Fold this sequence. Notes:
This protein is of the alpha+beta class. The chain has helices at residues 3-23, 41-44, 134-151, 279-293, 334-342, 381-386, 388-395, and strands spanning 49-60, 63-67, 74-86, 98-99, 110-116, 124-132, 152-161, 166-171, 174-179, 185-188, 200-201, 212-219, 225-234, 238-247, 252-257, 263-267, 273-276, 320-322, 328-330, 357-362, 370-378. The strands form four sheets. Strands 1-2-3-6-5 form a five-stranded mixed beta barrel. A five-stranded mixed beta barrel has the order 7-8-9-13-12. Strands 14-15-16-21-20 form a five-stranded mixed beta barrel. β18 and β19 form a beta hairpin.
Amino acid sequence: xxxxxxxxxxxxxxxxxxxxxxxxxxxxxxxxxxxxxxxxxxxxxxxxxxxxxxxxxxxxxxxxxxxxxxxxxxxxxxxxxxxxxxxxxxxxxxxxxxxxxxxxxxxxxxxxxxxxxxxxxxxxxxxxxxxxxxxxxxxxxxxxxxxxxxxxxxxxxxxxxxxxxxxxxxxxxxxxxxxxxxxxxxxxxxxxxxxxxxxxxxxxxxxxxxxxxxxxxxxxxxxxxxxxxxxxxxxxxxxxxxxxxxxxxxxxxxxxxxxxxxxxxxxxxxxxxxxxxxxxxxxxxxxxxxxxxxxxxxxxxxxxxxxxxxxxxxxxxxxxxxxxxxxxxxxxxxxxxxxxxxxxxxxxxxxxxxxxxxxxxxxxxxxxxxxxxxxxxxxxxxxxxxxxxxxxxxxxxxxxxxxxxxxxxxx
Length: 411
């Protein structure tokens, strides 16, 4: 399981239960059960409360080391009067919390500890700990993933009507109307992030034509409509460009966007997927694009010898076409084509040079003229020469951002 996804997923599950716990008064000073010998309730109301949230890194007697979501490790001290309760992921009823003991805690569990504020350099003496077990989080994550795969759908946005609460997406060349309600959870990918579980609360007004949308819920019998329980959207530009420069030290790529004629700074992270399209395969893709657009395919420089001239890579499954919104249509599946692309040889920044043609699926940058590479394909000169727009459409076939995928559940 992807480590970064798991950490963000646990934050998401933990937040729901902790909000419920807060609503029940678990974290208000006057609701604490005070240890013997502590001042009375009236005196405690003026004392500052401190909280520590994170995953358990180490347990040494009654001292626990936590790794928070950001910042350095912190320590807490479990006292004899400390109350420890276990919440199941997604649980909102505080009456269903279970009392457990210190020895029940394990490394990897997520906890929120609350106590009276003290010197920041000292372990926080805590009065209350809310726990979500790592095993529970793993199980909940798998259940959610299976539900997305069973009841989810994803594609490119064709139209949005915030007033009616609908989003129309193109899935495998078919339109699917997604209906939302006041109960629908709506989120949007954070700027500069392609992590599904890092998506922030959003609204339909933020969704625009050309965005990627995934949603899960109950579909109509013919698959043309979905009543959504959750909608997640994001803007992920497709950039066809040539490389200006590569800075391996800062893991960045300076490229010239062939469409906007602008210079774009692309950040490459450990989650970025870089692939190189072999010359013969690129030529094969270009021929397919020619069939879709009627464009002429320039002759590629041949690197094969007479001995291997009869050897051709296998054709990708399904036919190539263009959808109503520029999405890759398929008679075998844009998803199949995307999986073929993802099986191409891996590449690195060191393999890229000035003048190389690339196609980049990028995040929406935190600043103008920037972005983080989700997927990058080099060796695409024949594709861009054959039909630049079709090459972009090919990359816009439904693909997963690393979160729950609804592709299997399309119409």
